[in-house]
Amino acid sequence: MYALQSPDLPISAVAPVDCPRKGTAFFPLYDRLANHIPSDQERETAAEFLRQALQDVAQQEDDLPDDPSGLTAWMEANVQKVHGQYQAYLEGRKAGSPRRYFLNRAHALYFLRNVAPTKLVDGSWLYGLCAHAGNSRLSDLVTTYVEELGDGLDDKNHVKLYRALLETYGLDPVGELPDALYQQGLVQLALGWNAQEFLPEIVGFNLAYEQLPLHLLITSYELNELGIDPYYFVLHVTVDNADTGHAKRACVAALDAAPRIDDDGDYWRRVRAGAKLGNLGVSTLDVIDGFDIENEVIAIMARKAPSGNGAHSDFCKVAGRSVNDWLSTPDAMPEFLAALEKSGWIKRNQPASESRFWQLLQGERAEMFGVFSPYELQVIHDWIRGPDSVDGAKFDKDAAPGSQTRQRSFRVEQRLKAARGAAPDRSAAGLDTDLEIFEQRYPSLDPAAKRDLLVQAMSPALHWTPVGLKATRLFLGAP
Ligand SMILES: [Fe+2]
Fold first, then answer.
1. Could you tell me the distance, in angstroms and rounded to a whole number, from the CA of residue 127 to the centre of ligand 1?
2. Number of neighbouring beta carbons within 10 Å of residue 304
3. Per-residue three-class SS string for 150-211
4. Of all helices (H) and strands (E), which one includes residue 119?
5. What is the pLDDT of residue 245?
């Protein structure tokens, strides 16, 4: 964890990070902006990345009105369209259509994991406005940011909620994801750390990003159906609402920040350019469509191969080759899986418990118990079961042969828990190195330095931690 520095202390020196361009990675700069307080040089690198990104989207069309006065009608038309599409989806489901997004539980968990780089920096594009909270023309943007931070409440902070979601389903730590998945999060962070240069683009990005998308409604519905906590997504359906929520606020903010002095349309052109930055990177639907369960099983096995190679007895042979030998060549996992299937160790399209391979991974006396994460087990489980996995069964509740068990929805499960008197989970807060530094330093600072320290603690790297939550509450005037 990065230790809080007072505004007059120099930022610790780190190796310079390159500006991501075609062929270079997004992750290093994403990491500097998401998990640290970046140096001036890193912020400039992020600004350069944005200038390039704006050029990349320059030729794309946007659907914003030609004049800001059309914003409310534009927002309402979007809501009507999305509601109509969602009603059609619900009617289709009622008539027996399959889920539109998630084939099975593994697919839904894959989605949660792969969108994590964006969700873990939720709201960050507005961070730079905190330092300008005194300017009432920006107050809707500041309010939106603080609401993303859950007003400093432990169980309302959006990033903290997403972290808890990943932890609940064994999806963390989120490492080894394709680099392209960090691009959209990097756009958001780069805006947040460069508000001074990109205010109209931030206004435009916020405008487009805060409008209710259809995928949010369908995702919430299907996660719940699969027994997965949909709260993070449901929260965004309510928070983005067109009446009083972020969608409306984004329109008001765009009007408030617009110059009163004639600028020849420059502000609005830049707002529209910023709105298109949300199109960069891998979209929600791209992530969902990118799921191929066989490829995911192969990737999981290839990741495990180096640590498994040498851990098996040479008597373990599959298709005439020792398991150690198979695992010594991670690229050979498709052939290894085919050999396991051919030799009867894996029986596809049957309950996973029928496969000897699965019995090694899961169960009280499984020899490889604990080797695979809950997510990895779910993927292998659903891959073995094949089409039957549409029932959404959890890997540790393997359905008996021929049974038609249906996954209880998340909400039904919660109601049953409440009826049985189970207490809701509450994570302990309060013990934290940054919080200790903050509490020692904050009372002795003058008002301007206090404000600077609060703003620093509300940065993307810290706002979801104990010190960030406390700073957010102080920022709002709480004692
Ligand atoms: Fe959010």
1. 13
2. 18
3. HHHCCCCCHHHHHHHHHHHCCCCCCCCCCHHHHHHHHHHHHHHCCHHHHHHHHHHHHHHHCC
4. helix 116-119
5. 81
List the shell of residues around ion ligand 1, using CB closer than 5 Å. 122, 148, 158
**The predicted structure's pLDDT at residue 474:** 96
Q: Kind and range of the H or E element at 322?
A: strand 321-322
What is the C-alpha separation between 67 and 73, in angstroms, rounded?
Answer: 11
Tens-place pLDDT, residues 329-358: 888 899 999 999 999 999 999 999 999 999
**Cis upstream peptide for 173 (omega within 30°):** yes
Structure tokens at 450: 């206090």
In this predicted structure, the answer to whether residue 478 has a pLDDT above a threshold of 80 is no
Give the distance (Å) from ligand 1 centre to CA of residue 152: 13
What residue ranges do the domains of the chain occupy?
46-289, 293-419, 433-475
**Distance from Cα 404 to the centre of ligand 1, integer Å:** 37
Q: How far is ligand 1, taken at its centre, from the CA of residue 463, in Å? A: 13
Contact (CB, 8 A) for 146 and 230: no
pLDDT for 427 beyond 50? no
Q: What is the pLDDT of residue 304?
A: 85
CA dist., res. 362 & res. 388, Å (int): 19
User: Which CATH number does the domain 46-289 belong to among 1.10.357.20, 3.40.1160.10, 1.20.910.10, 3.30.300.330?
Assistant: 1.20.910.10
Helices 195-209 & 40-57 angle (0-180, nearest 10)? 50
Length of the chain: 479
- The answer to whether the beta carbons of residues 216 and 92 sit under 8 Å apart is no
Q: What percent of the chain stands above pLDDT 70?
A: 87
Span 224-230, mean pLDDT? Answer: 96
Q: How far is the CA of 275 from the centre of ligand 1 (A)?
A: 17
Q: 51 burial class (0-12, 13-18, 19+ CB within 10 angstroms)? A: middle
Residue 152 CA to residue 425 CA, distance in Å, equals: 18
